[in-house]
Protein backbone atom coordinates (compact mmCIF):
# COMPACT_ATOMS: atom_id res chain seq x y z
CA UNK A 1 0.00 0.00 0.00
CA UNK A 2 1.18 3.47 -0.76
CA UNK A 3 1.96 6.41 1.47
CA UNK A 4 -1.04 8.14 -0.10
CA UNK A 5 -3.29 5.38 1.25
CA UNK A 6 -1.95 5.75 4.78
CA UNK A 7 -2.01 9.54 4.61
CA UNK A 8 -5.68 9.46 3.66
CA UNK A 9 -6.65 6.86 6.26
CA UNK A 10 -4.86 8.78 9.01
CA UNK A 11 -6.44 12.09 7.97
CA UNK A 12 -3.19 13.68 6.83
CA UNK A 13 -4.58 14.08 3.31
CA UNK A 14 -8.10 14.32 1.95
CA UNK A 15 -7.08 13.21 -1.54
CA UNK A 16 -8.35 9.70 -2.29
CA UNK A 17 -5.46 7.63 -3.69
CA UNK A 18 -5.69 6.49 -7.28
CA UNK A 19 -7.35 3.13 -7.66
CA UNK A 20 -9.52 3.43 -4.54
CA UNK A 21 -13.13 4.47 -4.21
CA UNK A 22 -14.01 7.48 -2.05
CA UNK A 23 -16.63 5.47 -0.14
CA UNK A 24 -14.18 2.66 0.59
CA UNK A 25 -11.50 5.05 1.75
CA UNK A 26 -13.93 6.89 4.04
CA UNK A 27 -14.83 3.50 5.54
CA UNK A 28 -11.14 2.69 6.15
CA UNK A 29 -10.60 6.10 7.76
CA UNK A 30 -13.64 5.62 9.99
CA UNK A 31 -12.55 2.13 11.04
CA UNK A 32 -9.08 3.34 12.00
CA UNK A 33 -10.58 6.22 14.00
CA UNK A 34 -13.07 3.93 15.78
CA UNK A 35 -10.38 1.35 16.52
CA UNK A 36 -8.07 3.99 17.95
CA UNK A 37 -10.86 5.54 19.99
CA UNK A 38 -11.89 2.19 21.47
CA UNK A 39 -8.35 1.10 22.28
CA UNK A 40 -7.38 4.38 23.91
CA UNK A 41 -10.62 4.52 25.89
CA UNK A 42 -10.07 0.93 27.09
CA UNK A 43 -6.88 2.09 28.81
CA UNK A 44 -8.00 5.59 29.80
CA UNK A 45 -11.79 5.52 30.30
CA UNK A 46 -11.77 8.53 32.62
CA UNK A 47 -10.12 10.68 29.98
CA UNK A 48 -13.06 10.53 27.58
CA UNK A 49 -15.47 11.41 30.37
CA UNK A 50 -13.32 14.31 31.57
CA UNK A 51 -12.77 15.75 28.10
CA UNK A 52 -16.31 15.48 26.75
CA UNK A 53 -17.23 14.21 23.30
CA UNK A 54 -16.02 17.11 21.15
CA UNK A 55 -12.59 17.31 22.76
CA UNK A 56 -12.32 13.51 22.76
CA UNK A 57 -13.01 13.34 19.01
CA UNK A 58 -10.43 16.06 18.36
CA UNK A 59 -7.84 14.28 20.52
CA UNK A 60 -8.32 10.93 18.81
CA UNK A 61 -8.26 12.52 15.34
CA UNK A 62 -5.01 14.33 16.25
CA UNK A 63 -3.53 11.12 17.64
CA UNK A 64 -4.37 9.13 14.51
CA UNK A 65 -3.14 11.93 12.25
CA UNK A 66 -0.05 13.17 14.10
CA UNK A 67 1.28 10.38 16.29
CA UNK A 68 4.26 8.18 15.56
CA UNK A 69 2.06 5.10 15.90
CA UNK A 70 3.16 2.74 13.15
CA UNK A 71 2.55 -0.72 14.54
CA UNK A 72 -0.03 -2.95 12.92
CA UNK A 73 -0.99 -4.17 16.39
CA UNK A 74 -3.70 -2.28 18.22
CA UNK A 75 -2.18 -3.52 21.49
CA UNK A 76 0.80 -1.24 20.87
CA UNK A 77 -1.47 1.78 20.73
CA UNK A 78 -1.38 2.50 24.47
CA UNK A 79 2.35 3.23 24.39
CA UNK A 80 2.02 5.28 21.20
CA UNK A 81 -0.79 7.30 22.79
CA UNK A 82 1.27 7.99 25.92
CA UNK A 83 4.18 9.09 23.72
CA UNK A 84 1.84 11.33 21.72
CA UNK A 85 0.44 12.94 24.89
CA UNK A 86 3.96 13.52 26.23
CA UNK A 87 5.05 15.22 23.00
CA UNK A 88 1.87 17.28 22.74
CA UNK A 89 2.13 18.42 26.36
CA UNK A 90 5.54 19.97 25.68
CA UNK A 91 4.42 21.98 22.64
CA UNK A 92 3.72 25.64 23.08
CA UNK A 93 0.34 27.00 22.02
Automatic annotation (TrEMBL):
Pfam families: DUF2063
Gene Ontology terms for molecular function: DNA binding
Keyword Protein transport: no
Annotated ranges, domain Putative DNA-binding: 3-85
Alphabetical keyword list: DNA-binding
Secretion signal, residue range per the UniProt entry: none
UniProt name for this protein: DNA-binding domain-containing protein
Natural source organism: Comamonas sediminis
UniProt lineage: Bacteria, Pseudomonadati, Pseudomonadota, Betaproteobacteria, Burkholderiales
Amino acid sequence: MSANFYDYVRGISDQVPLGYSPNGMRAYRHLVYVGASQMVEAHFPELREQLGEDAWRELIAAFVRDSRWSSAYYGDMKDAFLEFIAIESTRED
